[in-house]
Amino acid sequence: MAKISFSIIALGISLLLLETGAQNPKKRLATSKPPKGQCCDEVRSLKVQVANLTSLLAELSQKQKTDMKNVFRQILELDKQDQQLEGRVTEAESKYSEINNRVEIMQLQTLQSATQTSSDAIYDCASLYGKSYRISGEYKLPKDEFLGAPELSVYCDMETNGGGWTLIQRRKIGLTSFSRDWKQYKNGFGSIRGDFWLGNDHIYRLTRQPSTLRIELEDWEGQTRYAEYGFFTVGNELNSYKLLIANYSGNAGDSLRYHNNTNFSTMNRDNDKCVDDCAALRKGGYWYNCCTDSNLNGVFHRYGAHTRSAEGITWYAWHGPNYSLKRVEMKVRPVGFQP
Ligand SMILES: [Ca+2]
């Protein structure tokens, strides 16, 4: 405010100088001592001008005060509006979070009711069997939005020991390499009608319900054996797909017990319980301990016997560490499945 007043005064003075200078420049230059009457007239006129300017200044100063008041009032008004807007935003935010909460509760309720009425939903080959699909072959499981699981092609065994089995692994042709990295074992690889690994994420999804694992083996002489585990579950990726099995039955011998409670390892992820790198030595992805009592994702050796190393598709309890099996199938089914 002081600054503005000062500028106005300066303006007034310069106007005054300009006016007196411009009014009679010749006269001033020409006569250094003007006559008495003329001098008094000039003083009078200057006085009038000063008075006029003073009143103008007072007027301007008054106007400025009013303007400042108005500006101040406007600022207060804006501030009030701002507070109101802020209040509305807070209100909207709390409403949004409330709606979010309700959506979460609804999702949980839907998930629970879906689990309760599991006879309607299709989770695996057992669900399909329950819907009277009785022919073994390739089926599509619908995507599971709650688990974030995409649509999935599976092979269903609808015949063995009552059917309803979802295959998680098969070895029979021998052209697909099983020496793969973590990501490939995570997502799965191979052909669902030939040799494949379903994928650790999918196996995790399938074994979220209490599950049975059945392993079927065949040697190059055409003999078959099986091992069944009444309890089978695989952790999620954060838990390195840790294997938990129990309740063995069968005629192949229990060559998975040694791998119980171990994490999954691949060529680029050594999670085994050994100073050695088992996945590299055994050339597969598996729940390696230190290292194997079975190696179902090992190297396919035609005609079984091999002496190079214990890298074949082995089940020690049946054919030992140097005999690669001709055929393997690993399959899961919910515990308490009724054919
Ligand atoms: Ca190791």
TrEMBL record:
Q: Which SMART domains match?
A: FBG
Q: Does the keyword Signal apply?
A: yes
The record ties this protein, via InterPro entries, to: FIB_ANG-like, Fibrinogen-like_C, Fibrinogen_a/b/g_C_1, Fibrinogen_a/b/g_C_dom
Q: Write out the coiled-coil annotation as residue ranges.
A: 43-109
Superkingdom of origin: Eukaryota
Q: Which Gene3D superfamilies match?
A: Gamma Fibrinogen, chain A, domain 1
GO CC terms: extracellular region
* Key words, A-Z: Coiled coil, Disulfide bond, Glycoprotein, Secreted, Signal
Lineage per the UniProt record:
Eukaryota, Metazoa, Chordata, Craniata, Vertebrata
What protein is this chain from? Angiopoietin-like 7
Q: What species is this protein from?
A: Cyprinodon variegatus (Sheepshead minnow)
Q: What GO biological process, any one, is recorded here?
A: blood coagulation
Question: Where does this one sit in the cell?
Answer: Secreted
